[in-house]
Amino acid sequence: MDDIAGLLEIYQPIPDGAPAGSDELWPVTIVVLTLNEERAIARCLDSALATSVDRVLVVDTGSTDATVQIVAGYTDQRVEMLQIAWADSFAQARNAALDAVGEGWAMFLDADEWIDSDCTDVLRDRLRAFESVAGITWCALTPVIREDGRDAEYREIARIVPADHLRFRGEVHEYPYIPADADAVPGLIGIDLVLWHDGYSSEVVVAKDKIQRNVALLESARRREPDNPRWLFFQLRDALPMLHFTDVMTLVEAFDSAKQQYPGDRQAPEFYRSLALSRACGRLAQLGEWTTALGLCFDLDRLTAGEHPDAAYFRGLHELNKVQQPAPDTLGRLVRLRKDPAAVTLSGLDKQGRPLDALIAAYLFRLKGRDAANAYLSLCEPWTDEFFDMSTLR
């Protein structure tokens, strides 16, 4: 597969026993799920229609604003609308769309997203390159999703699937699985296509009440699968800013009984537990519950059989806050950890090592002065860190 144009990375290999590919040209359908998306739907559809796809299927789940009227105003014959009732499940809506698509590629494009203008001409050719690959019908493709106006991008979200072979699981934070073989995990392959997204700007999040929506859907998912660590992690992550000490600890302790790996999920329960512990430490630190946070840091270390980068980060924050002169040995240990790419990628906070960079700079500032700290930060990409006001010290 190394010679496929547009291949970025293989996140999950093609499973054994997958059917052969095909030399026939697959139809391509862009699917857009909508619910009160009058703000962004025209931008989304315009970008979809700028490509050479066969069909743009809008699946509306009960809009009460002008979304349906805006879609109806498009005269391009490729635009179709399917109206279904919202059943409190993104997987159900995606699966209804896949049933309607029938065959070929289904590319899910959120209504608050648009296709990068440099990708509209090449989208179909990029997909065509995958169609004859053995086993591709049991794989999902993941474009690069970039946040407009924010330093964030996502590369492992399944958005392009063979419509007649894969389906989705989960009320929210849904993921693909293979109905024909529940024990197999779909292949997950990065593709060099860029989508832009602005649905997590603070204004949109508040207007659409996304946090409360996600939390409610995750509570439903946990009632259905109480031993599934995926839903437990996302419930903690999505509700984190609203959680108090007892809420955090209740969710952390729930991992003791959430140990089931469900069909199609490529991550083990320990993976979700590690991510949850990192996020929980951050929230506990914000609440000033340092004793408990440091205890969770030991749990993180045990999961990785060595010092976890997020545990090192929170221990360093605590030392900076509690002692007048931090230990030079700590700085050396942080630098060694930062130089270990395998260790850095274990972080549940930032896999690029930026929290450690901020912490190292703060240690340099305390031990060697402002110039040393800013000299280090000049080597790093600009960013803001949750526990530091700016990425440079002024």
UniProtKB/TrEMBL annotation:
Keywords: Glycosyltransferase, Transferase. GO terms for molecular function: glycosyltransferase activity. Pfam families: Glycos_transf_2. Its EC number is 2.4.-.-. It comes from the Bacteria. InterPro entries: Glyco_trans_2-like, Nucleotide-diphossugar_trans. Residues 29-129 form the Glycosyltransferase 2-like domain. This is Glycosyltransferase. It comes from Hamadaea flava.
